[in-house]
Design brief:
The protein is α/β, with parallel strands linked by helices. The chain is built from 14 helices and ten strands.
Length: 357
């Protein structure tokens, strides 16, 4: 049960993770059900959602250096795979990627792996409830904001072309939907009444009537937008800031009310044990909560502090303050959102998507 809210750049290295992950268990394990034999050159497999490629590249590099210095020169190799968060979770469950660690976009994707029996510890009692970073759902608009997009209701204007990923594959897509729903329910969207499920559904219907493309990941959706398609992309704040840092001239708009994106990173116990890398996997996840790693999340990944109160304040430099930054707990929590109010059979998004088609 959920107690809180919790670039698909698949390079040759990432593909190698998928191809060889199955071999890793065989080479490290002594036999089926038997004790594993630690390797002198351990290999850890990480499956992550699409937008944190650069951030985890730097985090892994720092961790490898620290581990080598403190373990008599032992080198740890990381195999990585990046893609839509929900797709990644499904790949881990199905054994396509035998990940020792998952860095996913939202709690329900971790819960999927836990329900499959691969995560055996109570990950929501880990440090910071397994959250390693916070961000916000924002709008990425064309230079000069010609469509005058400032709030969620502006996404319903006639003729607007909106890009957002496919919620069946992308965790970012679900964050986008929840952000719009929550802003409406909190009474922060002009023309939509607070605490009105009907009005929240109406808002989502208006937005999704304008959605022209639903890509498989948040990264693909943003790349589609930066290549010239659409009027606005609903996306992660750090994805928009990363695009701007790379020279993109589009502009970012933070809506007055938006959700705090809280992303969990968790050890996949069964796989890590089978590969005889559980100690390394746990050490890496623990490292993500250190000041050094949090600085990487901020400096490389443009992420906000884990603490939502501090996250709302911004940093006075790269990250602006947010008027109303809230968590999924404030609108019922992921259990309720997934099974009932938003994504359930009669949820606001389920009915809105049907009406918009």
């Amino acid at each position: 049960m959920f107690h809180r809210s919790g670039r698909a750049r698949v390079a040759a290295f990432a593909l190698l993770a998928i191809v060889t992950a199955g071999c890793t268990a065989k080479s490290n394990a002594a036999g089926s059900g038997g004790p594993c034999t630690p390797s002198d050159n351990p290999v850890v497999t990480l499956a992550a959602y699409s937008n944190v490629y650069d951030t985890y590249g730097k985090l892994i590099s720092n961790f490898q250096s620290d581990w080598k210095d403190s373990h008599n020169g032992q080198s740890v190799q990381f195999l990585t795979s990046f893609g839509g968060s929900t797709t990644q979770a499904e790949n881990v469950v199905n054994g396509v990627v035998k990940a020792d660690i998952v860095a996913l976009s939202l709690d329900p994707d971790v819960e999927m792996i836990q329900k499959a029996g691969l995560i055996t510890h109570d990950w929501q009692k880990d440090t910071d409830n397994s959250i390693v970073g916070t961000s916000a759902v924002v709008f990425f608009v064309r230079k000069g904001n010609p469509k005058h997009i400032e709030n969620w209701n502006d996404l319903t204007q006639s003729g607007l072309q909106v890009l957002t990923p496919d919620p069946a594959q992308s965790g970012g897509a679900k964050w986008n939907i929840v952000a719009a729903y929550g802003a409406s329910m909190r009474g922060k969207v002009p023309g939509y009444a607070a605490n009105s499920q009907a009005d929240a559904q109406k808002l989502l219907t208006g937005i999704f009537k304008n959605v022209t493309v639903q890509d498989k990941s948040a990264n693909d959706s943003l790349k589609n937008f930066t290549s010239g398609n659409g009027d606005v992309a609903i996306t992660y704040e750090y994805a928009a800031l990363t695009a701007q840092a790379s020279g993109d001239t589009d502009e970012m708009v933070i809506p007055p009310s938006t959700v705090a994106i809280q992303t969990p990173t968790v050890v996949v116990d069964k796989n890590a044990e089978a590969h005889c890398v559980e100690d390394i996997a746990n050490a890496f996840v623990k490292y993500l909560h250190t000041p050094d790693a949090q600085a990487v999340f901020h400096d490389v990944g443009y992420e906000r502090p884990i603490d939502v109160t501090k996250a709302q304040q911004g940093d006075g430099d790269k990250l602006a303050a947010v008027q109303d930054l809230w968590t999924t707990d404030d609108i019922g929590g992921w259990d309720q959102l997934e099974s009932d109010t938003v994504f359930g059979p009669n949820g606001a998004f389920t009915l809105a998507q049907r009406a918009a088609q």
